[in-house]
UniProtKB/TrEMBL annotation:
This protein's UniProt keywords: Lyase
Keyword Kinase: no
Protein name: MaoC family dehydratase
UniProt-listed InterPro entries: HotDog_dom_sf, MaoC-like_dom, UPF0336/Enoyl-CoA_hydratase
Signal peptide: none
Record Pfam families: MaoC_dehydratas
Lineage of producing organism: Bacteria, Pseudomonadati, Pseudomonadota, Alphaproteobacteria, Hyphomicrobiales
Native source organism of the sequence: Phreatobacter aquaticus
Single annotated GO MF: (3R)-hydroxyacyl-[acyl-carrier-protein] dehydratase activity
């Protein structure tokens, strides 16, 4: 994933419709590394022979690997460092294969002033196919909290 620069946005900077888009090409190294970290050694992710006999016809990335790309956007771009994940829903719609370019889109969908909460609409797509969607709730620090933490 090519993360431009890390951007930390304060709660006061967020508006409905503000969004971030990141592209990530899925590599064999990503899939193997995620299997090592997660412990999910399912052969659909790691064995060409096994995967060739499945309905996908080839190895696919872990669904949670794709979901982790959303986490990367939230943690580095929108809203960025200081945001605290509260929840995430995920709807897996299609497989992601090695070599696919995943388009990760995160958009501010709702802002709750009283508790500095933000609902983010999240979508991952390959070409015109949505492979994963859902929403995340995060608590976003105020400008004063970000300054105090620096």
């Amino acid at each position: 994933m090519t993360v431009r620069s890390i951007r930390s946005m304060a709660f006061e900077d967020l508006t409905i419709g503000l969004s971030e888009l990141v592209l990530k090409t899925v590599t064999d190294q990503d899939v193997v590394g995620f299997a090592d970290i997660s412990g999910d050694q399912n052969p659909i992710h790691l064995s060409d022979l096994y995967a060739s006999k499945t309905r996908f016809g080839q190895r696919i990335a872990h669904g949670l690997y794709t979901a982790s790309l959303i986490s990367a956007v939230i943690g580095t771009r929108l809203p960025g460092p200081g945001a605290v994940y509260l929840s995430q829903t995920l709807n897996f719609k299609a497989p992601v294969k090695i070599g696919d370019v995943v388009r990760v889109h995160v958009e501010v969908a709702e802002i709750i002033e009283a508790r500095q909460r933000v609902r983010l609409a999240c979508e991952c797509a390959v070409d015109a196919t949505v492979v994963l969607d859902g929403e995340a709730w995060v608590r976003v620090p105020s400008r004063a909290e970000l300054v105090a933490a620096a």
